[in-house]
Amino acid sequence: MVKKYNLGFLGILVIVLIGIVVINHSSPNNNDNKVFENQFIKFNYSSDLNVVDYSNNTTLLVVIYEGDVDPSNWEINAVGTIRVTKDSPKNIDWNANNIKEFKNVTISGYKALVEYDQLNSGAIIFLNDSAAITVMLNSGCDPYVNTILNSFEIKKIPPQLTILENILQPPV
């Protein structure tokens, strides 16, 4: 009878250890995280990513690459961006109530919506009634998104709020 319990306990222990190993290998190594910081934001990110700051004194544009940085056509080569956009909580709230992928959260003291869908993953962080910081990465980058959002800090609101379509290409 005692041997059966010992074998059962060992079996459970082996399953738990295998689970821990699988989880550790399926997400970015937290020990290898780097810190990005500029005058507007601060966050942790995986060392598997490269983060390039194209912000200036008035606006925020951070581009995230997986692998080599190629600013020649950053909108195609990047896996994500962090930027200020003109988004209204009223418009987004309607979508959040009708799309399962959105979750209401608070990030750095601001109301935010986190989304995970087939195309993008990230958050819309509302700065006021007409502006937001969007953190969006390709959907294949979900573990990276979690690292960024869990550490995201807004230090200062950029003075110039830009519409997504009007942001110029970063310098080459």
Number of helices: 4
How many structural units, i.e. domains?
1
Class by alpha and beta content: alpha+beta
β-strand number? 10
Globular, elongated, flat, extended or rod-shaped: what is the shape? globular
CATH level 1 class label: Alpha Beta
Question: How are the strands of the biggest sheet laid out side by side?
Answer: 3-4-5-9-8-7-6
Largest sheet: 7 strands, antiparallel
Radius of gyration over all CA atoms, rounded: 20 Å
How much of the polypeptide forms β-strand, as a percent range? 25-35%
Care to describe what's here?
The protein is of the alpha+beta class. The protein has one domain: 3-Layer(aba) Sandwich (Protein Transport Mog1p, Chain A), CATH 3.40.1000. It contains 4 helices and 10 strands, in the order αββββαβαββββαβ. It has a 7-stranded antiparallel beta sheet, sandwiched between helices. Strands 1-2-10 form a 3-stranded antiparallel beta sheet. A hairpin with a 7-residue loop joins strand 3 and strand 4. It is globular, with a radius of gyration of 20 Å. It starts with a helix and ends in an 18-residue tail after the last strand. The relative contact order is 0.18.
Entry keywords:
7-stranded antiparallel β-sheet, 172 residues, 4 helices, single chain, alpha+beta, 10 strands, Protein Transport Mog1p, Chain A
What's the structural blueprint in terms of helices and strands?
Elements: H1 2-26, E1 34-37, E2 41-45, E3 49-53, E4 61-66, H2 74-77, E5 80-85, H3 89-98, E6 102-107, E7 110-116, E8 120-126, E9 132-138, H4 142-151, E10 153-154
